[in-house]
Amino acid sequence: MKTQRILLSVAAPFAHAVSKLSEKKRKYIAVVSMFFVFCLFFFTLTKLAPYRYPFFASCFLLAVITIIYLQTPLYAIRWKKSCVFLWAAMCVFMLQAAFRLSSDYFAEALMLTIILPLWFLFWNNREDASLFRVLSWGCIISFILVIVVDIFLFPAGSGIRVYNGFLLSAMGAGEYYAVVFPCLLIEVFRLRSLREKRSLLIVLIGICVALCFYSGSRAGQVAIIVSFLCTSVLYLINHRNEWKKRVLMNILPVLLSIIICIPCALYLFQARTIVADLFPKPSTVEPAVTPGITPGVTPEITPEVTPGTEQTDENSQKPNVNFILERNWNRFFSPSKTQSLDRFSSGRLSIWKGYLQHLNLLGHDFHQRFEVDHNVTFTTAHMTHLEYAYRYGIPCALLFLAYNIIAGIGAIRYALRSGKEEDYMLLPIAVTLCYGAVSVCISLSFGVGHVLSLYYGLIQTPLILSHRLSEQKFAPVSKKQSEIL
Questions:
Q1: What is the value of pTM for the model shown?
Q2: SS3 for 333?
Q3: Residue 113 contacts by C-beta under 8 Å, 6 or more apart in sequence?
Q4: Positive or negative, the Cα torsion across 380, 385, 390, 396?
Q5: Is the distance from CB of 216 to CB of 162 less than 8 angstroms?
Q6: Which ranges in 280-383 belong to alpha helices (H)?
Q7: pLDDT (tens digit, 0 to 9) for every residue of the chain, 485 residues total?
Q8: How far is 380 from 369, CA to CA, in rounded Å?
Q9: Is 99 helix (H, G, I), strand (E, B) or coil?
Q10: Of residues 224, 218, 212, 222, the one with CA closest to residue 163
């Protein structure tokens, strides 16, 4: 309690200063800051600079969001003991691994030990809806940027089998769309009238699902399906007295948008290529004259065919929905008879078995990896909890698993409660479900490099707090500080 009082005393002058700004300006600064957090995530995908630079930049932006939304008076909080015990014990194992094994672990340890707890403390004096609105719209604006950049700078050209745009990889694309989808879905659910903004959000949901579908990310696709089904069920339970109206007004338009966008959105991202084909640039280079060939006469050339190969039509190399649909269907439901379960999992079973054989109690050096099969070394375990067990030790992974289970239960309870913050009460469970589905196939870590984990950490705010001590008639900080505030 004394530590909280000191921190709140430090934050009191900032709260007094930002209170002079209007609520509209504070919201604008916070949403723009969250948008730039996503820009830093995009930057980390390029690997153009060491991770520490975007990490500290993201910490600065989170501090800006926290300070700009400080509201007087500032009250201390009471934590949920079970959650805090698991969280603190997990941080102990992370810190010992950072000091003893590898300095690369300091970024994640710092995020869980200092950054997120301070976020929880200072967001205590705001309504949950304020936090979720910032997280949601910062994400949505970044997605609009992704669509524009993909259309003009990363078009879906010929000769490709999947389309990731400037997100570069299927894993990065799947993780990102698993954040965008719940934010869009909850915004559609909370808007009750057919206005232009709601119609735009419904179209964006369809494009989001279509892009995840084109990327071929099974983790992202499963996360979106699970999140949509479970969140819709909870949404209908909360509105069971008018569930038919909610289905017609909210769920059915989302489904129609997805059904329409999956076959049609690809042409949107091929627009630049289609226009370029319609207006080819005239060639200004004179054709080279080859000895023995008369200029202006096209010789007959018999193409060489390699035995065992077949000629393919030029159009078959262009991305088309039928091919992408068949590819996704085969990857999920129709593996070949000779395909092993390990091949079906893209080699993850071999990776998991290899990592399980190298686990210990206190973790390994970040750069200490091993050959899984056929002289192939994997830098991650492709499963979040297994990666935690390898990096920080088996107890840390078990503590993290226990916390996630408790947080999931808390998110369900939070979703089923009623109150003035009803609009966004489904967001924690929607993000939690996406995080749980993706974490099975991808090694996620808390930080700007994995924006899904970062969002999962930020939405823990209402789940890890028991209640405000102000409800028990505690003083804000001290009598002198209270007069300042």
A1: 0.85
A2: coil
A3: 91, 94, 95
A4: positive
A5: yes
A6: 321-332, 341-344, 348-356
A7: 678 888 888 888 888 888 888 888 999 999 999 999 999 999 998 888 888 899 999 999 999 999 998 887 787 777 888 888 999 999 999 999 999 988 889 999 999 999 998 888 888 767 778 888 999 999 999 999 999 999 998 887 654 577 888 887 888 899 999 999 999 999 999 876 657 688 899 999 999 999 998 888 889 999 999 999 999 999 999 888 888 888 988 899 999 999 999 888 888 888 877 777 777 666 655 555 555 555 544 444 444 444 444 434 434 445 566 666 666 666 666 555 556 676 666 778 888 888 888 889 998 887 776 666 666 667 788 899 999 999 999 999 999 999 999 999 999 998 887 554 467 889 999 999 999 999 998 888 898 889 999 999 999 888 887 655 444 433 444 444 433 33
A8: 9
A9: helix
A10: 212
Look-up of token digits 């999956």 = 262
Compute the distance between CA of residue 74 and CA of residue 122 in angstroms, rounded to an integer. Answer: 8
- Written as six digits, the tokens of 418 are 């009623």
Task: Please report which residue ranges of 69-101 form alpha helices under DSSP H.
Answer: 81-100
Amino acid at 147: I
How many H-runs (helices) and E-runs (strands) does the chain carry? 22, 4
- In contact, 6 and 414? CB cutoff 8 Å: no
